[in-house]
Amino acid sequence: MITIKDVEHVALLARLELSEEEKQMYTKQLDAILEYAQVLNELDTDDVPPTAHVLHLRNVWREDEVGEHLPPDEVLANAPETEGQFFKVPRIV
Amino acid sequence: MELYYLTAHELHDLLLKKEVSAEEICRAVFDRIDAVEEKVKAYVTLTRERAFARAQEIDRKIAAGEAIPPLAGIPVAIKDNICTRGIRTTCSSKMLYNFVPPYNATVVEKLEAAGTVMVGKTNMDEFAMGSSTENSGFFATANPWDPERVPGGSSGGSAAAVAAGEAITAIGSDTGGSIRQPAAFCGVIGLKPTYGAVSRYGLVAFASSLDQIGPFTRDVTDCALMLNAISGHDPLDSTSAPGDVPDFTSCLKDDVKGLKIGVPREYIGEGIDPAVKEVVGQALKLLASLGAEIEETTLPHSRYALPAYYLIATAEASSNLARYDGVRYGYRAEDARDVVDMFMKTRSRGFGPEVKRRIMLGTYALSAGYYDAYYLKALKVRTLIKQDFDRAFEKFDVLLAPTTPTPAFKRGEKMDDPLQMYMSDICTLAVNLAGIPGISIPAGFVNGLPVGMQLIGKPFDEGTLLRVAYTFEQHADYSRRRPSL
What's the pTM value of the predicted model, to 2 decimals? Predict the structure, then answer.
């Protein structure tokens, strides 16, 4: 059973600020979806290995060489705020 | 037929015979866009000037007697979650409303090299989360067969553009059915290749272990041509599969004699519209009459695919979407007290309701105390689902199923109930969990609406899917029908 408190906790973890209305809605909907997900518990998976992804690839290596890279002004072009060659954010402390 | 309703290979023949120029093809498509886009709303951004310049470039090559590749001069639409250098790439989200990528996705580079002409960037469910394109942060797209209905999603803009004659082919992405489901709803071909077969460099990530780029086309031959153009190993994508790529046009054979086709009973049972079952039944009869050996089979864990999918996809999404913080690109809320307040306000205002719902679900599934019960459990069930397919493919060359449980549904019908919306992907999700290829092809019509049939194949065996689809197409005319807009 998902409570408003759970939703508030998860929202904080996800860095989302929810309105009272959104909290109510997500509490109801997440509860319904997770209730539905309980069906997975019908399966005994104690001895089943997890599949994180399907390709049989292991570490993919390459030489540590300097390649082509984007010029700093192009990298910064989409930033809401910059100063010199830096991304600028509001005060941190 | 009008130029805008021809296939890429038909247009290529006309180009070679100099009966039409690339510029004329481009004009035909943009005139069509001017005529119907108000109704369809397939595009977020149109790249008209670039397109004409590019078409003229192709015409100059033809005039100079240069050999042109099969897709040269062909207008292509690109889903707006695929990065295009210098052209806005929004994911249909307020969060990226002003994002102009400084680089091209590998598929975009490959399509450029193949000589295609980009028409524009297509509408989608925000960050590819949805099954109707109604979750776009900008506007909804209509189904060209019935504007009261959804085109499917999340690649609804790409599917609708091809169906409506607003592009000849298109590119989409498929995480749980986002190419195949809209292809079925819009009466076009849609292919989700094997995981790793097409580079995802430059695709905005939703669920990284499931996402795959693939084509929308009007017929199977065009599908093979598009797959030839976009497939192959890419050092820029560490999940790209090594190995050579065949020429997929060599698989276009009108021959299914002796081919073993399995029909999983879970996909033709409860929850599937009887009219859809009827269409699939007729298709099976046709394939049997052409010599295919058809037999019912089972994928016993099918009913667990939907809950497993939504736990895995949302967990990955909650992690992938953590990068949208208003620092480096996209939207930033301006009235923040400090940096954390800026993150919170930016994310709360930049994301739409479905994206927030999935971030919440995924964050919950990964959070302390619930990781084992939800996320890890889902990964284990994923193994069982994959084993079902492995077992079926010991006996069968391909599996055949409906692409969707119903034809296109009405706009607004499922927007209040996320679970009902998720159900429209029950026939396609498991294929992404298993990482195998699937194609949807038009297999019939119900009340004037197209119905799609899905062929599912072994890993990296797109060739057999194309062969069965091509054979079917030679003996049924459904992919030659066009909507009247």
Answer: 0.97
